[in-house]
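Suppose you are handed a protein chain with no further information: no name, no annotation, nothing but its sequence. What can you learn? This example shows the usual starting point.
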Amino acid sequence: MSKSVTVVGLGYVGLPVACLCAEKGHRVFGLDVNKEKVELVNRNKSPIEDEHVSQKLRNVKIHATANAAECIPNSEVVIVCVPTPIDRTNAPDLTELMEAVSSISKLIKQNALLVIESTIYPGTIEEVVAPILKKQKFDAYKNDVFVAHCPERIDPGNKKWTIESLPRVVGGLTKEATKKAAEFYRSIIDAEVIELSSVKAAEATKIMENTFRDVNIAFVNEMARSFDKAGIDIIEVIRGASTKPFAFMPHYPGAGVGGHCIPIDPYYLIEKAKQIGFNHKFLSLAREINNKMPEYTVELLENELKKLKKSLKGAKVGVLGLAYKADVDDLRESPSLEIINILKAKGTDVFVFDSHAKEGTNVKNLDELLNKSDCIILATDHNEFRNMDISLLKKHKILAVIDGRNCLDKEKIKSMGILYHGIGRS
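A reasonable first move is to predict its three-dimensional structure. Written in structure tokens, the prediction is:
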């Protein structure tokens, strides 16, 4: 049955959700404080680089607005997809979530379904969301408003696992809220919707998923640094280990971990655990290892230049890629930004190119970057970099290549007399 739905936050999570709801026949409002985003969505144009979303926006109608009073009072379902970052001390910053819920609480109608998709630590719904609603005389424990958490699952640029095909989990403050949320999500996705026994279990699910990835990436990054000293190619070892049909899941090393999930979510669990008297040593170490990878990547270049009796100071370095992952324009927590900052602090002339994330690019194209650079660091494995004509490196007299994503042809580069070093492969 068609419902009136408001999606709060039209970013990398909220906009795909809004498109999906509209596609499934619901009447959809998109609420965002960014008026430029609102204007673009109302013109059926995507404010984010996502081919899947852009295509859907051409065929559905979303009424976008910056005014909560236009949509919240008329909505049976309100889905919150606002950012939940960390502050400078790595503590969870729930400011945007609290502001969103506060605004919603003043306008939401009785018995509406309120779903938080934003990533939060276990206990947030009970300790933060429910009390804000209570101030407006809504008792979520008595289903004045049905409150649930359905942690977002989305992988920008992934054509196989889209928002429609990914299974979801839901947990509500009450059993009725859980069922109501599950029924709604079953109306919009083509995958299984799992009902968990509590809202805390749902909150912990997303944190655990991304912390699992962070720990495994840290493990393989540490192995890469170890194998590098031993003269072992980490990619070859991973390929060998992957032949085991059970108990091994390949993860790959790189110049750093980016995005709004893996570098952020573990801190939500680490900090919350401290409050209840538990110290996550393992998770903290994984964060430390992964946070040091941009610095390690620059050190690799420094070492290669020493072989040429050159230093980073005054060197002309081209950085390929700004986005945190291939073929998207998302700069959130991108290790490339840290690599650039480190290079500049060492007195390097830095040239940057990314055709997806143009803000921060200071050359017109790849050819200009190579022409101005003595050496390059590949920080993002966009297809155009993966598939570039390697002979261009020789043509532009590139002296050294640091392959931060292990995606270039190592042997071909070395055969041209160019120094090559990947992450765990030389």
